[in-house]
Amino acid sequence: MYRKNYKIWQLLSLIAVLASLLGTAAQAEEISLTEAFQRGRENNPELRELKEELLTLERGLAQLMSSLDWQVDFSGQTSYGKRDEIKGLMQTYYPVDNKLKEEGGQLSLSLQSKKTYLFGLNIKSNLSITEVQPFKFENFEEKYDYSLDLSQRLYPLLPSEEEKKYYRLENEWKIAQIQRAALLKTREIDWLELYFKLDSLKKSQQLLAQNYRLVEAKAEQVLEQYNIGEAGKTQLLAAQIELKEAEIALKDARSKEEQASSGFAQALGLDEGQLKLVDAEKYIDQLPAGDLNYQDLDGLMELVVNDNTRLRALKRKFAFQERELKWQKAEGKPQLNAVGNYKHNPGTDDEWVIGLGVIYNIFDSGRQEIALAEQLAELESLQLERQQLLQQLRSELKGLQNQLALNLLNLDGKRLALEKAELELELAAEQLKEGIITEQQYQQQILREKQAEIDRETAQHQVLISKRRIIDFVGL
Asked: Which residues pair with 121 in a beta bridge?
């Protein structure tokens, strides 16, 4: 009876484990690592948020640029009346032509346009035509009015307020581009690290599944020996405990693998579930080699100063702030403007005027001085921020170097452990031939050697990730 119940318990345990494995496999989606990362670039919440920010800035730039481009307005108006009765009304609200002597109609059309260029040229034009009954639409040259106004700041060459808004928004857009590109590289390293962890857990789980079958076979053998009196109760309990521990280890590995798979899918913005990743080696092989002296702190800092993405963004802020200061200083200088005007009126000679105008604010109650002080304070703040950032980056780089050094030491240890496991496997093969150990013990030694190989591979991946983080950090 005891043996029968034990057999049933074993069968149910095996069915549960297999059902878990097969159920997960049935949900698996085959996807290459390259494709998974591509989806991550599109679906990752952080990257999508930055992409939306970029699109918002681009729309803002397009809107500002459109406000500087040609603006054309059309207006039309028709009226009907008797001059003596509606003279006041029509003169107040409508451009009544003097030709309207008696009761009749009038049609007025107007086309206005303007454009502002980024270099300071402003153009405005107006074309209007008035026609009275009977509407013949003839001899337009006698009926249209046209005017053209031009203005250009000659000194100092400063952008208008609208132009400044455009340049500021453009600078924000460029900084956002730098930040998104930096985040993308960082997240790809994070995803690769998650993949390595997931791959290691899968391989370890497969070994634990094999170990479970070996321990199960051993437990069955001990049970048979117990039933015929060749094994004691202590041996049976030890075998059952070993089997239970193997089952717990397998289920724990399965749980960790599922969590890692779910975390990997969520990080990439994919549906949760087990992913069957293929062609990972192809992606890993195409990674840049990064021929660096990873322990040369000063040499790496030179690269950081030139190419680190956070410093690049700060440099752009600093450069634009210097530009703002230059604009503010120029605001206090006398302004020299060129103007031009051309008019065509029906029945009269055309008129035109060109000229120069000077504007100088003699006294502004200290407004210019305050504005300059604010710009200088902002520039000094950015300079201090840069010094602090350099110190912070140097400290972070040291941390990355230390982590790489630890990972290299760990790799050396895992290589020695693998070498030891290989020697032990060779010894186990000899012992199996001589009958010193059982086949099951030999198979378990094979599993230990395979796990040592997985551990060594994991250590190699940790070194690769550490190097990738340094390469990304220095901006390569």
From this structure: 152
Collapsing DSSP to helix, strand or coil, 293 comes out as: coil
- In a domain, residue 131? The reply is no
Distances in Å between the alpha carbon of 106 and those of 83, 140, 155, 270, 345? Answer: 11, 15, 47, 67, 18
Residue written as tokens 């107007």?
Answer: 110
Does residue 83 lie within any of the structural domains? no
Range of the domain at 238: 1-74+157-287
Helix spans in 340-438 (H):
367-433
Nearest to 382 by CA among 325, 319, 303: 319
Distances (CA, A) of 243 to 26, 210, 226, 250, 374: 27, 12, 16, 10, 74
Question: What are the tens digits of pLDDT across the range 65-107?
Answer: 888 788 888 888 877 766 544 444 444 444 444 444 456 677 7
Question: CA 28 to CA 252: how far, in whole Å?
Answer: 20
Query: In this predicted structure, what is the pLDDT of residue 90?
Result: 44
- Report the greatest alpha carbon distance in the chain: 134
Same domain, yes or no: 375 and 314: yes
